Amino acid sequence: MIEMKKVGKTYPNGVQALKDINIHIDKEEFVYVVGPSGAGKTSIIKLIIREVVPTEGTIHVNGTNLGDLTKKQIPYLRRKIGVVFQDFKLFPKLSVFENIAFALEVTEEPPDRIKPRVMEVLDLVKLKNKTRHKPRELSGGEQQRVAMARAVVNRPAILIADEPTGNLDPETAWSIMGTLEDINHRGTTVVMATHNSHIVNHLKKRVIAIDDGNVLRDEWRGAYSYEA
Amino acid sequence: MKRNTLARHVREGIKNIGRNGWMSFAAISAVTIMLFVVGVFALVILNMNNLVSAVEDDVEIRAFLESDTDAEEQEEVMQDIAAANAVENVSYLDRDEGLDQFIDSLGSEGAVYESIRDENPLNDALVIEASTPEHTEALATAVNDYTAIETVEYGESILTQLFTVTNYLRVIGAALIIGLLFSSIFLISNTIKLTIISRKDEIEIMKLVGAKNSFVRFPFFIEGLLLGVIGALIPVASLMIGYFYLYRFLDVQIPFITMVEPFPLVWQLALILLGISIVVGVWGSQMSVRKFLKV
Ligand SMILES: Nc1ncnc2c1ncn2[C@@H]1O[C@H](COP(=O)(O)OP(=O)(O)OP(=O)(O)O)[C@@H](O)[C@H]1O
Ligand SMILES: [Mg+2]
């Protein structure tokens, strides 16, 4: 599903965010990516959705070599990957409903199917009562859940969540984890970047620990730690 | 593109004007002000040219015949003058007609002269049009040499001055309009750019959640078009109405200033101004979106 071979990323300002990343994630897996701040977690995500291109190595997503992707194909790649961005990336001037509906509109989904589907995912993240609110009228946790709803509304093959529990109280965090597991059980590959050791240690999954742009450990049912 | 999607784009384009209220207001104001200035200048310059050419066309030589010439002599002189290269047209104006014209030209004040009809001071005359207005002066001198001609009248020294002035006016007018047009195109498209640059992040998010470039662009196309149309409404309407009433007013009050007929001129002006603002609106919006589609 996702494969990175010898991937390196040096940003234009000279920062070498990723050095030699080799990862293979199969269909329907649930994977934590852990590592200290600045380790390169978000950079890996940006590479997967082709927001940035690697300076070294090759990346395959869903069987496609991203290096061969034409500009016109990029939107179709991104529609197969739902992303909960670390900074949410919600549209500030759109309502909660419109923010989520946007992800369906880009796929030219018939309008009469957009509304029920949006309500469905709003129910999933327990925000049915805030459909008309603008993002700035929501708490951090609520915004995060809107981002979550937008990421899954398309029923993507891959769901990537960058710190999806970062702004949540433990209870809501666990409820989000329940949602992620649910989605995973329905056949979606889930990749979650996180700092939340409690969750990683209690809901055991594969853990890829990275530090300073390298993979330190890659363990089936691992624990939260990024010491070698 | 599906019908639904097109409808969605149009809806978004309209909504975006409201969502970005102040920015839209700024862009619309820029369009309004610039079109108004361009329109006023175009009308002023057009009318100045019109006035000047009317005066130029009006330049004719009146050669008054000696009162003792008989019909045969008159005919001979007329034929002779008509044969000259520099002459466009010669016509005969008898003294009664000449007086009529004179009285008419004074408008309501001409009535005073009705009383002198019996003692008409004018002679019969030949009205000569030069083939080009610049030839008038030389032609007049030549005509004056005929013995059958008593005196010659024409605009004289004003003429030469007029020609230099009108030529300058035309050049300056054209330059002014072109300069004004370019600066307003620049200003309008820049204001529209600003409304879009402020939405750079939103455009990038659209792309990150899987929007195609055309999907991002289309609502901006509609928005640019609408900004152009809305911005053109006030200046176009006020120029049309204003010009029409000014024309009517001057036509009655100051009859010797002849303005260009309001129809079809105001419609042509409306179309041109609307066209400019739509093209600039759409062009400005599309150029600025393009920069942010690289994500
Ligand atoms: N656009 C960019 N330009 C230059 N350097 C960048 C850019 N984005 C990230 N970096 C650098 O790359 C390194 C890795 O950043 P990244 O965002 O991937 O870390 P992270 O693991 O997601 O951290 P965090 O847990 O704080 O989110 C950092 O040193 C960061 O400064
Ligand atoms: Mg990060």
What's the short version?
The complex is a heterodimer of chains A (228) and B (295). Helix content of chain A is 32%, strand content 26%. Chain A is α/β, with parallel strands linked by helices and 228 residues long.
Descriptive account of the structure:
The complex is a heterodimer of chains A (228) and B (295). With 228 residues, chain A is of the alpha/beta class. Chain A has one domain: 3-Layer(aba) Sandwich (Rossmann fold). Helix content of chain A is 32%, strand content 26%. Chain A has helices spanning 41-48, 74-79, 96-105, 111-124, 140-152, 170-185, 197-202; strands at 2-10, 16-25, 30-34, 56-61, 64-65, 81-84, 158-162, 189-194, 206-211, 214-219. In chain A, the strands form 2 sheets. Chain A has a 6-stranded mixed β-sheet, sandwiched between helices. In chain A, helix 3 packs parallel to helix 5 (140-152) and helix 4 (111-124) packs across helix 5. The longest helix of chain A is centred in the last third of the chain and has 16 residues, at 170-185. Chain B is α+β, with helices and mostly antiparallel strands and 295 residues long. The two termini of chain B are 22 Å apart. The A-B interface holds A 49, 51, 72, 75-76, 78-79, 83, 85, 89-93, 102-103, 105-108, 110-111, 150, 154 and B 1-2, 4-5, 8, 19-20, 202, 205-212, 215, 295. Residues 41-42, 86, 162 of chain A line the site of magnesium ion (MG). Chain B: One of its GO terms (biological process) is cell division.
